[in-house]
Write a structure and sequence with these properties.
By secondary structure, the protein is an alpha/beta fold. 32% of the residues lie in helices and 15% in strands. The chain is built from 18 helices and 16 strands. A five-stranded parallel beta sheet has the order 3-2-1-4-16, sandwiched between helices. Helix 15 links the parallel strand 7 and strand 8. Helix 5 packs antiparallel against helix 6 and helix 10 packs parallel to helix 18. The chain starts with 5 loop residues before the first helix and ends in a 16-residue tail after the last helix. The structure holds flavin-adenine dinucleotide (FAD) and iron/sulfur cluster. Iron/sulfur cluster binds next to helix 8 and helix 9. The site of iron/sulfur cluster (SF4) has 14 residues, from helix 8 and helix 9.
Length: 488
């Protein structure tokens, strides 16, 4: 522990944001980095607890007190080595992770928790700036070939780990560029895409081969890959979108969030897209769904120049504080307000959309909602009921459906005879990540359902260990909690 009294002396300081009027003019990141002397203080707030609950809060098991201490001592390169020992891509999680570690931080019981996520981002940025993140190809090759299907964070983490073990790894991606939802889901204002490109350059230099624009299941069958490679990792995400099958859902002006957001990311990147242009400029927009995807639709609509943006969420409004039944160190379901929410959206909770309304030309003009009430009885699932007499019509020229995902696309599973689970994700046990087909593994959202980047990286790393063990009989690739030897 660097400074024993750090947590008493220093308050948490978050990165400030550029003013709303300025940041909504662009799709760039808008945080203003803290200087190194302030980051040193933030690192000093860590109490190096005897039992660091933050470790278990982090799905990667990041060695948080260790890198906090190194930052306090201004040993940035050492901090980077510690961090990269458990996390392949801290520049992604340092920007985008909801930081369950901070909810589990002991200081968070009666003070603001240590700003772990921001420290992580700054360690990664410092490491790139100083050239400490270099290609580190394996010294020996095993002669084994592995195909990784899908280049989101799960696929990229699995690929890097398997390449480190000496296997020849090829990543197949149906989009024209690698990155998965990091590139085509998450808007540039949350993470600029050069952050992915600079990491991909390192992976390529390490010897990983990328085949983008190849749709496995169509351009090449999964069976062919199974024959050509010694093992296959499926990291294809959970991409089947949830619909809202209510009257009027075929009106013009209703779009899936995952048509709207990827198109905008392509536009920002100067790439082409298929289908009609979807823009919120000059429109009254209603975003249905209050999660991350809904929030990204809000920020994007505001940047398009929407006239108004409303956000409807069927769940009740949480409180900013931890609910009593979700005590520390658990992840609490509290009201979360994103930077996009603060850019001018109106939020409505406990509201359900009953029907869409349109004109004689089939264009959307509005929608009708009712208020809903949630009742919770111990031991039973929460029950939803409509509040009588609360029907209301709202004007809208554009509706964005951000209702989550129902599971994985079935094509590859069908081609390979892989079992799906009850939630239509690929069934593979977290004991070894292998599906019912020997040599075929699954990791990330396609296995656990739509989740988080930190979980995708964690799953990619875990799966890589078991793939290596399957190929070689044993594996030195670390599992979560192994206290890996740092490798940048
Ligand atoms: C809009 C949005 C915002 C989000 N924001 C956050 C956030 O702020 N923080 C956070 O932690 N999480 C966020 N998430 C969740 C996070 O992005 C995912 O949990 C994570 O990307 C999952 O990683 P993955 O590698 O499993 O899958 P994905 O990132 O979905 O990658 C799967 C890849 O597989 C490819 N693929 C699929 N099928 C095939 C095929 N047949 N052949 C070839 N390639 C194929 C896809 O094109 C894709 O590139 C967000 C999700 C969305 C949709
Ligand atoms: S990856 Fe997420 S949970 Fe893990 S230490 Fe970083 S911010 Fe915390």
């Amino acid at each position: 522990m660097g400074k024993t009294t750090g947590f008493l002396e220093y308050e948490r300081k978050n990165e400030p944001y550029k003013p709303v009027e300025e940041r909504i003019q662009k799709y760039e990141e808008f945080t203003i980095p803290l200087d190194k002397s302030e980051l040193k203080k933030q690192g000093a707030r860590c109490m190096d607890c005897g039992i660091p609950f933050c470790h278990s809060g982090c799905p990667l098991g990041n060695l948080i007190p260790d890198f906090n201490d190194a930052v306090y001592r201004e040993r940035w390169e050492e901090a980077s080595q510690i961090l990269h020992g458990t996390n392949n891509f801290p520049e992604f999680t340092g920007r985008l992770c909801p930081a369950p570690c901070e909810e589990a931080c002991v200081l968070g019981i009666n003070e603001d928790p240590v700003s772990i996520e921001n420290i992580e981002k700054n360690i990664a940025e410092e490491a790139f700036k100083n050239g400490w993140i270099k290609a580190n190809p394996p010294q020996k090759r095993t002669g084994k070939k592995v195909a990784v299907i899908g280049s989101g964070p799960a696929g990229l983490a699995a690929a890097q780990q398997l390449n480190r073990a000496g296997h020849l790894v090829t990543v197949y991606e149906r989009d024209e560029k690698a990155g998965g939802l990091l590139r085509y889901g998450i808007p540039d204002f949350k993470m600029e895409k050069h952050v992915i490109d600079r990491r991909l350059a390192v992976l390529e230099e390490e010897g990983i081969s990328f085949k983008c624009g190849v749709h496995v299941g169509k351009d090449v069958t999964a069976d062919q890959l199974k024959l050509e490679y010694d093992a296959v990792v499926l990291s294809t995400g959970a991409t089947v979108r949830r619909n809202l099958p209510i009257p009027g859902s075929d009106l013009k002006g209703i779009y899936q969030a995952m048509d709207f957001l990827p198109q905008n990311n392509r536009r920002v990147d100067g790439l082409q897209w298929e289908g009609e242009e979807i823009k919120a400029t000059g429109k009254d927009v209603i975003v249905i769904g209050g999660g991350d995807t809904g929030s990204d639709c809000i920020g994007t609509s505001i940047r398009h120049g929407a006239t108004s943006v409303k956000n409807f969420e069927i769940m009740s409004k949480g409180t900013p504080d931890r609910p009593e039944n979700q005590p520390w160190p658990y992840w609490p379901m509290r009201l979360r307000t994103s930077s996009s929410h603060k850019e001018g959206a109106e939020r409505f909770f406990s509201i359900s959309t009953k029907k869409f309304v349109g004109d004689e030309n089939g264009n959307l003009t509005g929608l009708v909602t009712t208020e809903v009430e949630w009742t919770h009885k111990p031991g039973e699932r929460p029950n939803l009921s409509e509040v009588p007499g609360t029907e209301k019509e709202w004007k809208a020229d554009m509706v964005l459906l951000a209702l989550g995902f129902t599971g994985s696309e079935p094509t590859i599973a069908e081609q390979l005879g892989i079992k799906m689970d009850a939630r239509t994700n690929i069934e593979a046990s977290p004991e070894d990540y292998m599906t019912n087909v020997p040599g075929v593994f699954a990791a990330g959202d396609t296995r656990r359902g739509q989740s988080l980047i930190v979980w995708a990286i964690s799953e990619g790393r875990q799966a890589a260990h078991y793939v290596d063990k399957y190929l070689m009989g044993k594996s030195d690739l670390p599992l979560k909690g192994d206290g890996d030897l740092p490798r940048v």
